[in-house]
Design a protein that fits this description.
The protein has 2 domains: 154 residues, 7,8-Dihydro-6-hydroxymethylpterin-pyrophosphokinase HPPK (Alpha-Beta Plaits, 2-Layer Sandwich), CATH 3.30.70; 191 residues, P-loop containing nucleotide triphosphate hydrolases (Rossmann fold, 3-Layer(aba) Sandwich), CATH 3.40.50.300. Helices cover 39% and strands 16% of the residues. The chain is built from 13 helices and 12 strands. The strands form 3 sheets. Strands 1, 2, 3, 4 and 5 form a 5-stranded antiparallel β-sheet that branches. It has a 5-stranded parallel β-sheet with strand order 9-10-8-11-12. Helix 5 crosses helix 12 and helix 7 runs antiparallel to helix 8. 34% of the residues are buried.
Length: 378
C-alpha cells in the first residue's frame, strides 16, 4: 500500500504548552504504519475567538502513513484523550488540540471529517507552519499553494462569518476592470451587485475638468452614497453582496484631490460616518500597470475621464499598494493583469470566493472513541 502525506495542526494554551506539543509529536511518531517526517517550530499566537484566553503555541507536523484519513483522524483523538484534552465549548482553552489539515490531495466531507480543514485558509498560524514544511504544497480546493494563500491574510487570522453581511469588495485603479468583474461575479454567485455612483455624481465631471473648488463636494457626494450603500442592512441571508469598490479607498482619492483645508474638513465627516460602514469579508485587488489602465479609460471613452493623466493613475496605484500592504480587515485575493472578460477565469475565481465567504463555515462534529467503536459493528 502506498504511503500518503498527512499534515496535522497542533495547538496548546494550557499548562506546559511546549511539553504538550512535544508529547503529541512523540506519540504521532509512534503511530503504527506511520512516520513523523517533519514538524515546524512552535510559534506563539493570539486566541482566535476569545482574547481573554491564554496565548497558544501552534505547530504543524508532516506524517507519512499507510493509514486512511479516517484512521489518522481517529489516532489524533486517541492522542488528545491520552493527553487529557477537555471537551468544552468550541474554541475554548485546551491543553492540546490536533487537527487533520490536509491528507495528500484528497477532498473529504463527512459528518465527522472535512479535509482540507474548512478554516485553515483563514489562519496564518496554520499556513505559516505549512509554509515552513512545504511552501509549494497545493490546497486541493483552492488550487493555490499555501504560500499564496498565506499571503492573502497579511499575517492575520480570521474567524468564520456567522450572521454577518458577506461583502466582497473589488479594489483597484480607475480602468482596472472593477465594475466588469463585479457584475460578472454577482452573476456567477447569483447575488446582488453594488456599483459606485459615478454617473449620478454631478460634481465629478467638473472636478476632472480642473475645477478644484468642487473637489470637496464631489468627495462628500461619494462618501455619503457609499455610507448609504454599505450599511449592515445589505445582509441577504447567507448570500454575499459584491461591490465595485472598497470603502477605505476614500482616503486615497481625498488626499490626491483635496486641498489641505478641504481634507481637514473631509476627515471630520469621514471619522463620523465610517464606523457605520460594514467591512468586507473578502477583498479582490485588481493590479496592473497604470499605462494599461489609461488605455482602457481612453477606450471606454467617458468624456469626463479623458483628461486623466498617467501621473494621477500612478499616484492612485501607489495609494492602493499602501492600503493593501497594511490591510488587516479581511483576506485579500490579489489578481495581476486579470482578464475580467475571460469567463473561465471568472468562474474559477467565483469558486474561490465561495470558499471564503459562503457556508458551510463550521467544522464537523468531532467523533468520540465510542463513535469509532460503534462503526466497527456496523
Amino acid at each position: 500500500m502506498s504511503r500518503k502525506t498527512a499534515y496535522i495542526g497542533l495547538g496548546s494554551n494550557l499548562g506546559d504548552r511546549g511539553r504538550f506539543i512535544e508529547d503529541a509529536l512523540q506519540m504521532l511518531g509512534q503511530t503504527p504504519d506511520a512516520e513523523l517526517a517533519n514538524s515546524s517550530e512552535a510559534i506563539e499566537t493570539t486566541p482566535l475567538a476569545d482574547i481573554n484566553q491564554p496565548k497558544y503555541l501552534n505547530a504543524v507536523a508532516e506524517l507519512k502513513t499507510e493509514l486512511s484519513a479516517e484512521n489518522v483522524h481517529r489516532r489524533l483523538i486517541e492522542i488528545e484523550n491520552s493527553l487529557e484534552r477537555g471537551r468544552g465549548r468550541r474554541w475554548s482553552s485546551r491543553n492540546i488540540d490536533l487537527d487533520l489539515l490536509l491528507f495528500d490531495n484528497e477532498i473529504i466531507n463527512t459528518d465527522t471529517l472535512i479535509v482540507p480543514h474548512p478554516q485553515m485558509h483563514l489562519r496564518s498560524f496554520v499556513l505559516s507552519g505549512l509554509c515552513r514544511l512545504n511552501r509549494k504544497l497545493v490546497h486541493p480546493i483552492l488550487n493555490e499553494t499555501v504560500e499564496v494563500i498565506a499571503g492573502r491574510l497579511n499575517g492575520c487570522d480570521f474567524a468564520p462569518l456567522i450572521d454577518k453581511p458577506r461583502l466582497i469588495s473589488i479594489a483597484g485603479n480607475i480602468g482596472a476592470g472593477k465594475t466588469t468583474l463585479t457584475k460578472k461575479l454577482a452573476e456567477a454567485l447569483s447575488c446582488r451587485a453594488i456599483l459606485e455612483a459615478y454617473d449620478t455624481n454631478p460634481y465629478l465631471p467638473k472636478v476632472y475638468a480642473g475645477n478644484k473648488e468642487l473637489a470637496l463636494s464631489s468627495q462628500l457626494y461619494f462618501l455619503t452614497s457609499r455610507v448609504e450603500q454599505l450599511n449592515p442592512s445589505i445582509r441577504e441571508k447567507n448570500n454575499p453582496v459584491v461591490s465595485d469598490y472598497v470603502f477605505q479607498k476614500e482616503q486615497i482619492y481625498a488626499k490626491l484631490t483635496l486641498s489641505k483645508e478641504q481634507f481637514t474638513l473631509y476627515q471630520k465627516v469621514y471619522s463620523q460616518v465610517a464606523p457605520g460602514v460594514i467591512n468586507p469579508a473578502l477583498v479582490i485587488y485588481l493590479t496592473g500597470p497604470p499605462k494599461v489602465c489609461l488605455e482602457r479609460i481612453h477606450k471606454r471613452n467617458r468624456a469626463y475621464e479623458q483628461k486623466i493623466e498617467i501621473s494621477f493613475l500612478e499616484a492612485i496605484d501607489a495609494g492602493y499598494k499602501e492600503l493593501v500592504a497594511g490591510w488587516r480587515l479581511s483576506p485579500v485575493i490579489t489578481l495581476n493583469d486579470f482578464d475580467c472578460f475571460d469567463d473561465k477565469a471568472v468562474s474559477g475565481l467565483a469558486e474561490q470566493v465561495k470558499y471564503y465567504v459562503m457556508p458551510p463555515f463550521t467544522s464537523p462534529v468531532r467523533p468520540t472513541e465510542e463513535h469509532y467503536e460503534s462503526r466497527k459493528n456496523d
